[in-house]
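In this supplementary section we document a worked example of the pipeline. Step one takes a protein sequence of length 170 as its only input; no multiple sequence alignment statistics are reported here. Step two produces a three-dimensional model, which step three serialises into structure tokens for compact storage. The input and output of this example are shown verbatim.
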Amino acid sequence: MNNNIVTYSDWDTSDWLIFRIKGSSRDGETLHIARRGYPTIELSYWQAINFELGLIVPIQGYEPMTEDSSYLHSIIAEFLSSVDDDYGCINCRSSKLAKVIAPCDECKVIVDGVSYKMVGEESLTMLVPPNLGIGAFDTISFTYCLECGQIQWRFPISDDQFDEAFRVDD
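The serialised model returned by step three reads:
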């Protein structure tokens, strides 16, 4: 038996085969998702976070806002949580991580005293900017370390990434 594989579901109990292959770091972690009749998906840890935040949607065969999508999101959340449990904080390695999940109906981003709002089609359906590591759509969601305060996300966010998503709020 391979100790580097964690199984979440199998063909014997459902139409899904979902498993995690452990890596030597967060960057080496992968989630494999197979569903009968659909292509197999392999997501790295960071791609799984992007999927969770709505940045990789839809994946072929997995439409958003359906029961299947809910199941997929719950599996991805379980995967991310288990990876975080294994590796701890990306800054100090502490295992004391807290997850904040809060629905919102308005979200402002203020940088250096300037208020920004999202641009493009996403601004019609997304209230929370997906590329800042604080959630997406209508939910603020992030994990942070209770030891050092580090938000568990890849930083820094480049000026190009920021400019692509936002414009000054008039």
